[in-house]
Amino acid sequence: MAEPGADTPQVGAIDFEPATSRLRPGPLGVEWIHGSVSAKHNTDPDIQVHWYDEHTVILRQNKAIDYEAPFLFLLFGNARAVLIDTGATEAPDLFPLRATVDGLVTEWQDRHLRDDYDLVVLHTHTHHDHVAGDGQFGDRASTRVVPASLSDVYGYLGLTDDLDRPARLDLGGRELDCIASPGHDSAAITFYDAFTGILLTGDTVYPGRLYVRDWPAFVATVDRLVAFADERPVSHILGCHIEMTTTPGVDYPVRTTYQPDEPPLEMSVAQLRDLHRAVGEVGDRPGRYVYPDFVIEHLGGDIDV
Ligand SMILES: [Zn+2]
Ligand SMILES: [Zn+2]
Prior knowledge:
With 305 residues, this protein is an alpha/beta fold.
């Protein structure tokens, strides 16, 4: 059956059943904005919007607004959408996240004929470059902003001390597994979307510098993610930054605002296994450990990054 056109309104419940045959490993097929030689003369959009599929949006913040240029994710279910992370900048005039998300939600609602529709704002972790835009959603109707702190997010999702038991978040027929992922940040969460097979790993796994504050917790988290990926189809592992170059083992310096030679955002389960092996090699010894697709920065204590 042909997919209905994007401009044909869709009535009734959308079937978000996990469909292994629909998973699309392969490249995302998008060129991300990646800064410019002169930030002042940057002509990219403030926020890049990429529709991964009809119900899934990946956004990237412009490097000229903040060098971190984090990725954010907007997933639509039958009853509500979830926005995962709110970027690195508070001010809506510099970083119009609220307006962008409102436009995307309206577009989706129009396409699928939903009047009552909620938005939940969650986070991959507590760091500033992932929560800065929260305030833009404070007065939004039908919206729940869940603070990123451990007690708030564990309470909302129903996570417990048993970190090996993921919690479920139901968007209305579309369910996310929420996996405790401490190590980079104690409150870090990995989200798995069975509909697309995407694993959203925040700053825990991405093509860049993996800053580890709590080594034993990080080891357990990587074990947990590998075990999870063993049991589920994973199409892409999407973290929140790109810091490597296309040259294996070479990363861009911190605060780089022009990255013409970025590798793709998406990583594979094979690369997650590479990380698993690397973590075993490094052991609990603070230092910087360079691998082709990532760098492990074992900070050896409670250092704030
Ligand atoms: Zn972080
Ligand atoms: Zn970050």
